[in-house]
Amino acid sequence: MLTEFKNLPDDSRVWVYQANRKLSDEEVAEITEKSNEFLTKWTAHGAELEAALEVKYNRFIVIGLNQANASASGCSIDASVHFIQSLQEKYDIDLLDKMNVTFYSGEYIAYKTLEDFKKMAKDKSISKNTVVFNNLVNTKSEYQENWEVPAKDSWHSRFLS
After folding, report:
1. pLDDT tens-digit map of 124-144
2. DSSP symbols for 92-156
3. Residue-averaged pLDDT of the chain
4. I want to staple 135 with a disulfide (CB 3.0 to 4.6 A). Which of 16, 83, 154, 158 is the partner?
């Protein structure tokens, strides 16, 4: 069952998938349509899942799930990963590599490998105040409050001196 992201309770589970490049407006429209089709049919052991989609900054695909009605099972999570893999293939993007870092560089959103990010930290090209995207958030409230944070307040802090 598809709902609007804003209607999900704060304790809803979220999955954040970052693209390795900015998506065009046309790609975002297509991805939104395909994702909504998937989420409308998404089930766990035959039970409808109340889910929502948000695409942020033409770069992040965020899926939210209200677990109060039904929780995602192993099979339903597998189905969502297969869906994300199909988006990767169709749009020639990487959405599943968690070893990359996305952060603000001025007004732009930069995407770097973890190794490049570590080097930038060592070279002082980024600081503890650089705003990073913490894609390890688990709930809607964490996503809303702790997703875009200074590096010092995220797991990224271990790379900063």
Report:
1. 999 999 999 999 999 999 999
2. T---S-TTEEEEEETTEEEEEEHHHHHHHHHTTSS-TTSEEE-TT--BHHHHHHHSEEEGGGSGG
3. 93
4. 16
Q: Cα dist. 52→4, 12, 32, 89, 93 in Å?
A: 5, 10, 10, 22, 21
Q: How far is CA 80 from CA 16, 53, 55, in A?
A: 12, 12, 16
Structure tokens at 14: 């979220």
For residue 36, the tally of other CB atoms under 10 A from its CB is 14
Q: How many domains does the chain have?
A: 2
Q: Which residues contact 110 (CB under 8 A, 6 or more apart)?
A: 102, 103, 104
- Residues 59 and 112 both lie in one domain: no
Q: Looking up tokens 């749009």, which residue turns up?
A: 91
Among residues 68, 91, 114, the one where a domain terminates is 91
Question: In terms of domains, do 14 and 75 share one?
Answer: yes
Per-residue pLDDT tens over the stretch 48-69: 889 999 999 999 999 999 988 7
Residue 85 lies in domain: 5-91
**29 lies in the same domain as 73:** yes
Mean pLDDT of the 106-134 span: 93
- What letter would DSSP give residue 8? S
